[in-house]
Amino acid sequence: MSDFISPFWSTYVAVITVLSIVACVILLWVTARKKVPSDANNTTGHVWDEDLREMNNPLPMWWVGLFIITIVFAAVYLVFYPGLGNAGGKFGWSSKAQYETEMAAGQQAIEPLYARFNGMPPEQVAGDAQAMAIGERLFMNNCAQCHGSDARGSKGFPNLTDGDWLYGGSPEKIKETIEKGRQGNMPPMAAAVGTPEDVKNVSHYVLSLSSSPNDSLRASLGKSKFGVCAACHGMDGTGNQVLGAPNLTDKVWLHGWGEQAITAMVNGGKVNQMPAQEDRLTASQIHVLTAYVWGLSNKPVSTAAAPVAVTNKH
User: Fold this and answer.
1) How much is the pLDDT for 64?
2) Are 122 and 290 in contact (CB under 8 A)?
3) Is 160 exposed, middle or buried (0-12, 13-18, 19+ CB in 10 A)?
4) Residue 307 has what pLDDT?
5) pLDDT string in tens for the chain (314-residue length)
6) What span, in angstroms and rounded, lies between the C-alpha atoms of 306 and 224?
7) How far are the Cα atoms of 91, 281, 288, 292 from residue 179, in angstroms, in the given order?
8) Is 267 exposed, middle or buried (0-12, 13-18, 19+ CB in 10 A)?
9) d(CA 13, CA 69)
10) Dist CA 218 CA 199 (whole Å)
11) Residues 246-263, buried b or exposed e (16+ Cβ, 10 A)?
């Protein structure tokens, strides 16, 4: 990224821009000097089909006029608008400033739409049809690229419609995830587990935790080696939402199922990132989006009912 914010690029763009204009001026000057007498043989010597000859005439006047207009327009434009690297122009216009102005105006226009949801808890917002229609559009624009249009995710991207949550599925935790993002990190653990055979044994023990098909002998041998994994996943393998360590006792497999997938995870580790959205969405939008995501796996509270405590599967 530092390559593109270096002062070199500003100078590079300015030089290329000026040279392009100068090249147009030189072209006009060179062609304007050429005078062809009416009786001269003004051909290049190239002949096709015996009588089709290539002429070497000066530019026609209408073409010269277009070059002049281009040069004048470019000079005037560069005085008032950015075009010479970091030079801003006399009007001080920039695409970034225009974007920010338009976005601010747009946010101001739609803020009254969100106003009535701001004072409602997410559990009640999830029961409002208008709020959920807005939440669905926010989800499709900002979340569906990873989690899918149906929010069921895919390999490496969590399913948001079930009750399995890496960091907790309460509205507060969902909001925290949307705002701040998450950085999941499973370090390579092969060296700590032991030999390749030990890693395979641990993989079968992990499979046994969820009653998945496994080699019972390998699983019994891997139980003692699982201790190095228990620091995050717990001795019983139920995970740790504070650390984002998955529950290994259910049948939810974010990065793949089976001995090969688990062995690859132990050997190579995994880094997974959920990008923060607080700089892209307003607080009101995050509030509605939180309610929408929460409502995908929970029963919304009626807007006429009082708020109730909500618990999650994990």
Assistant:
1) 87
2) yes
3) buried
4) 45
5) 455 567 888 889 899 999 999 999 998 888 777 676 666 667 777 788 777 887 777 778 898 899 999 999 999 999 999 988 888 888 989 888 999 899 889 888 888 889 989 989 999 999 999 999 999 999 999 999 999 999 999 999 999 999 899 999 999 999 999 999 999 999 999 999 999 999 999 999 999 999 999 999 999 999 999 999 999 999 999 999 999 999 999 989 999 989 999 999 999 999 999 999 999 999 999 999 999 999 999 988 765 544 443 434 33
6) 49
7) 36, 9, 12, 15
8) middle
9) 22
10) 10
11) bbbbbebbbbebebeebb
Answer whether 295's CB lies under 8 Å from 128's CB: no
DSSP letters spanning 71-108:
HHHHHHHHHHS--STT---TT---HHHHHHHHHHHHHH
From the number of C-beta atoms within 10 Å of its C-beta (0-12, 13-18, 19+), residue 169 rates as buried
Secondary structure percentages of the chain, helix, strand, coil, to 5: 50, 10, 40
The C-alpha atoms of residue 294 and residue 169 are separated, in whole angstroms, by 7
Q: With contact defined as beta carbons under 8 Å apart, do 309 and 170 qualify? A: no
Residues listed for the chain: 314
pTM: 0.70
Predicted local confidence at residue 38, as pLDDT? 61
Cα 115 to chain centroid, rounded: 28
User: Do 249 and 209 touch, CB atoms closer than 8 A?
Assistant: yes
**Cβ proximity of 53 and 47 under 8 Å:** yes
Pairing of strands 182-186, 270-274: antiparallel
Q: Which residue has the tokens 């032991």?
A: 194
Beta strands in the chain, from DSSP E residues, in sequence order: 43-48, 52-55, 182-186, 270-274
